């Protein structure tokens, strides 16, 4: 999914959540991934990462982490009362 100048593995635009699934080659590109994550967070995205072997061997745990992250989404600011409203 294109997000700015990057391609996200999975992105839920309405939730501003990006899920990245990383293989072993990402261990060699930590600085790039950090800069990429910093950019995405600056654009208002939340980014969570999983290793391929976590997805393959612990899918329930990965799904639970995604669900927890979605539940942690801050609720919208309450509407301001108009001046003079009760």
UniProtKB/TrEMBL annotation:
One function term, GO molecular function aspect: endonuclease activity
Keyword annotations: Endonuclease, Hydrolase, Nuclease
InterPro entries named among the record's database cross-references: DUF559, Endonuclease_DUF559_bact, Restrct_endonuc-II-like
Gene3D superfamilies given in the database record: VSR Endonuclease
Transmembrane residue ranges: none
Sequence ranges assigned to domain DUF559 in this UniProt record: 2-70
Pfam families: DUF559 (PF04480)
Signal peptide, first to last residue: none
Source species, domain of life: Bacteria
Protein name listed in UniProt: Very-short-patch-repair endonuclease
Species this chain originates from: Sphingomonas yabuuchiae
Organism classification: Bacteria, Pseudomonadati, Pseudomonadota, Alphaproteobacteria, Sphingomonadales
């Amino acid at each position: 999914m294109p997000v700015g100048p990057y391609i996200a593995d999975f992105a839920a635009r309405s939730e501003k959540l990006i899920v990245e699934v990383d293989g072993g080659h990402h261990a060699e590109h930590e600085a790039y991934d950090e800069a990429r994550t910093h950019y995405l967070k600056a654009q208002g995205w939340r980014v969570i990462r999983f290793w391929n072997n976590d997805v393959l061997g612990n899918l329930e745990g990965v799904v639970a982490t995604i669900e927890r992250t979605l539940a942690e989404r801050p609720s919208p600011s309450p509407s301001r009362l108009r001046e003079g409203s009760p």
